Here is the input.
Amino acid sequence: MTSAKSVTVRSATEQDRPAITALQETGFGMRYGEDERALQHQLWPVERALVAVDNGRVVGHTTDITMTVTVPGQRSVRAAGVSGVAVAPTHRRRGILRELYTAQHERTEADGLLLTVFTASEATIYGRFGYDTAILDTAITIDRRRAEFRPSTPDPGGVELATLAEAAPHIEAVYDRWQRQVPGAQARPAAKWGMVFADVARHRDGATSLFVLVHPEGYALYRRRYRDNRSIVSVVELRAVTPEAHLALWRVLLSIDLVDAVEAEIADDDPLPYLLTDSRAVRVTRRGDSLWARVMDVPGALTARTYRHDLDTVVAVHDPFRSAGGHFALRVRDGVAECAPTTRPAELGFDINVLGALYFGAHRARALAAAHRIRVEDLTALRVFDEAFTTDRAPELGWFF
Here is the structure.
């Protein structure tokens, strides 16, 4: 058994690359192809990585890049996007993750970033570090034989088939427009676009390479696969900047011949089930989290987004991991917030991960209060706080990392 005292955390070097890759493949149970590995290295520069080392062997890893993320009000903030968090199965329960995260968050604080975000493989690890689920999504399977659009549903048309190469400029332009509209969505860097257009996940799980549908205001990327003698269309990504584009793309996806089912992930407020004569044709197969967030700077983060209603309250924020907590006066007028530390008594109190849950609009404060995660001194203050944090559009993850 290895003692945590024998493990040191340091910045990674290029010489650590093979060991980092081996650790991640072991931890996440997958193998990267050579082209995918090269693009991953571009996306996640080794100089941003931290490793835990025991007797010269890499036994833990985390890395990050600075992301641009849309927040409510179609504003944007800079956030630390953390990825590749792994500890060797031989070194679990030694406090290595805490050591890695301490160093990671010290660097994020020094960089002055307002949020830290990531996509989590497990849900029970990160609450103690101040994180919570910030975006939810729903996986669905649609029985294509029952997928009939209501007679009142228009058919906008305008969808065409394309190759990935010829559609690339259009896909990037549409995504950029969509991302600036949607809370939680991140700008996609060039290295990530390289992974999309190289189709690095082709043939994974027996699926085809990507098929492409384009509309002047949207696009859809999908694969075909066969499972249990059924032909399935798996929608990898559908982005539409207008309701007409969304509808037009779904009309084509649900009319593809020789298909038994269409699989996709949709946002909480996606109107798709309401467009069909039989809403049961859209079956939920999974409901879960797609992004976790931690607020690094409470006044900075709360003043970066807009709000639906005026608000004047004091909140007590407890930070179990870092020192971002305290009492804060939050005042909102015409959607714009002011926030600063205060000595006034609090009307509401909660751990800092509650702010992560509320920040993009995925959760309601009243539900968290009912779950005893918000301490309430004034019920009126809770009602106003809850209404102020609601958003016009459900948040969505831009791209998985």
